Amino acid sequence: MCNAVKMVSDRLWRTRKGWSGIKQFCLFIGMVMLLLPFSGEARAAEKLQLIGAKNLSGKSLLAGVEMTMEPGWHTYWRHPGDSGIAPTFDWSKSRNVADLKLLWPAPLRFDAPDDLTVGYTDHVIWPVLIRPIDPTKSVTLDLSMHYGICSDICVPGEARLRLTLPDGATEKGAHLIRQYLARVPTPPRDGMEVTAHVEKEQLFVSISGVVDDAPALIVEGPRSFWFGKPVARQDGKAIRYVVPFERTGDRPLKGADIGLIFSGPRTAIEVTQKVE
């Protein structure tokens, strides 16, 4: 729990909210203290497990961290937003692992008054690519994970998960993991155009060539900036977004590199764009 509290406190101190952020942190701590006697019941709202797929090649393996939540609950993306808890994944106790990469499927954006967060509802699988030290021997994945889930209340959680590959690999696991691999954002395809420019305290973003009417836009910028809820409109073949923002320092947004994630039912695009 202490790790989760530290993550939230660090996050809120970095936001633009000042006293509002501190109040949110105090409220979070109060909720955690009130929920301690009931934390076992509250954490029953989610189920976590490691799942495995058959070999991708002779040298690599595919696994996934699967979280299933009860209706009405959600967890968070790598940049959770104003008040969420980003999941952390510690694989240091794994055996026969030369390299491991966890991938993030495109998230949803949760919009609430004065509080924007980003994450997943109901069910998510984080795909994991593993390169063994010795491909002829089994791999033991040993994960220590910290996370947060929220509904009407927010609860920090932790789990210790283990899986041996290739023994734990299944065809069902392969099917599920590949569904979420397809949701990992990729660069824009040929024919797509993305632009970003700033006017006063608004960021203007456009994208052309997407199949969804208006995929959710998630902006990841420098720490001294806070980005509000985007307003989207169709303009011919392009979708244009207007994003209000605030800053805590003197650094201008113009000229900065920002991350743009476009997330829709059929869209999962990520691009780093210089603001004009």
Short description:
The protein has 276 residues and is of the alpha+beta class. The chain contains 4 helices and 18 strands.
Structural summary, described in words:
By secondary structure, this protein is of the alpha+beta class. It folds into 2 domains: 180 residues, Immunoglobulin-like; 82 residues, Immunoglobulin-like, CATH 2.60.40. Helices cover 16% and strands 48% of the residues. The chain is built from 4 helices and 18 strands. Strands 11, 12, 14, 15 and 16 form a 5-stranded antiparallel β-sheet that branches. The chain is globular.
Q: What value does the average pLDDT take?
A: 85
Low-confidence stretches: 1-44
The count of DSSP E runs of length 2 or more, i.e. the number of strands, is: 18
How is the main sheet built? 5 strands, antiparallel
Number of continuous helical runs: 4
What is the class of the largest domain in the CATH system?
Mainly Beta
The domain count comes to 2
Q: Cα distance, first to last residue?
A: 42 Å
Question: According to CATH, what is the topology of the largest domain?
Answer: Immunoglobulin-like
> In one word, what is the shape?
globular
Determine the CATH superfamily of the largest domain: Thiol:disulfide interchange protein DsbD, N-terminal domain
Radius of gyration: 20 Å
**SSE string, helix = H, strand = E?**
HHHEEEEEEEEEEHEEEEEEEE
Helix content: 10-25%
> Architecture of the largest domain, according to CATH?
Sandwich
Which structural class should the secondary elements be placed in?
alpha+beta
Strand residues, percent: over 45%
